[in-house]
Amino acid sequence: MTATDPPPYDAIVLAGGAARRLGGADKPAVRVGGRPLLDRVLAACAGARRTVVVAAPRPTSRPVRWTREDPPGGGPVAALHAGLRHTTAARAVVLSADLPFLEEATVERLLSALHAAGTDGALLTDADGRDQPLVAAYRTTALRHALAALAGGNSDDNSDNSDNSHDSGNSHDSDDNDNGSGLTGLPLRRLTAALNLTRVPDPLASFDCDTWDDIADARARIREHGHVLDEWISAVKDELGIDLDVDTRVLLDLARDAAHGVARPAAPLTTFLVGYAAAQAKGGPEAVAEAAHKAAALALRWAEEANPSPGAAADGPGPDGPGPDGPGPDRPGPGTTPASGPGR
């Protein structure tokens, strides 16, 4: 880490709730914008050094560490305690698994607010101004002290420091000696009341899905809040397992040029070939942009041939008429007789 790099953070995602208001459905697996809610949240905290998910293990879009509160279903405070035991960074982002509009920029904003304010934590507030402690960044030392106090001083204040690097794959911890049983059933407000918190208003990112009406609202808003293309690109990248930032405007301009200059079916085929060329070159966004510019220039040349402007073609008519093989001032056209005169 260089002097300009932000300090590392870990992420704790609580995904083991009963979802009673959804009729007991598997809420983390419910899809919004084609992606499971859990995967959407994991994408938002992709910058975490370690991500701990408190829930039963399941397939996810990226590797995480799994753990459970003991007993399972012990509530958010017990789940937070279970996840915190497997963090090593000085800061932790704590998230619920039902945040369809959470983005990486929001996580970075919370971490920046935490750093700037010097408080124990920074959390989002919703459209009604209510605290959302499961969309927050905390100092892990402050969390451990508060949890220990809630548990009557019996909480193990030591984290699992056996691995300071990113997990290379999904792992599952089932041998927690300190199960935080004194925290079972406690509401989150008991924990946050003991912390000095900074509040960051964000009605959209704090929107969570507790009911099927919320799910329907989120699915509709995905297509209304002005970022449908970004949502679609993110979903496709997750589905294909790629992590590549591409300037979509370049590709959209290319598709337009290919459709107008060549033929409408050329648009998707050309963008596919550009992506394939970039992959063959083993390049990143720069390779995509370079290939797109080449293909766009080719499409424009095709368009110019179909609709030539006067004097545009090198072998076309010049200012005095047709080119060297056609009629001009000194060359008779078809069916004409050369004029007679001196020197003829």
Description:
This protein has helices spanning 37-44, 76-84, 104-117, 140-150, 188-192, 212-222, 228-240, 248-261, 266-280, 285-306, and strands spanning 10-14, 31-32, 35-36, 50-54, 65-67, 91-96, 121-125, 131-139, 171-172, 197-201. The protein is an alpha/beta fold and 344 residues long. The chain folds into two domains: 10-225, Alpha-Beta Complex (Spore Coat Polysaccharide Biosynthesis Protein SpsA, Chain A), CATH 3.90.550.10; 244-306. The strands form two sheets. It has an eight-stranded mixed β-sheet, sandwiched between helices. The longest helix is centred in the C-terminal third of the chain and has 22 residues, at 285-306. The radius of gyration is 31 Å and the shape is elongated. The relative contact order is 0.11. Mean pLDDT is 81; it is low at 154-168 and 313-344. Residues 163-174 have a biased composition (Basic and acidic residues).
Order of helices and strands: EEEHEEHEHEEHEHEHHHHH
Helix content: 25-40%
The CATH architecture of the largest domain would be Alpha-Beta Complex
Number of distinct helices: 10
CATH topology of the largest domain: Spore Coat Polysaccharide Biosynthesis Protein SpsA, Chain A
Low-confidence stretches: 154-168, 313-344
Query: Can you summarize the main beta sheet?
Result: 8 strands, mixed
CATH class of the largest domain: Alpha Beta
Based on Cα principal axes, name the global outline. Answer: elongated
Topology:
Blueprint: E1 10-14, E2 31-32, E3 35-36, H1 37-44, E4 50-54, E5 65-67, H2 76-84, E6 91-96, H3 104-117, E7 121-125, E8 131-139, H4 140-150, E9 171-172, H5 188-192, E10 197-201, H6 212-222, H7 228-240, H8 248-261, H9 266-280, H10 285-306
Parallel strand pairs: 1-4, 1-6, 4-5, 5-9, 7-10
Antiparallel strand pairs: 2-3, 6-8, 7-8
Helix pairs in contact: 8-9, 8-10, 9-10
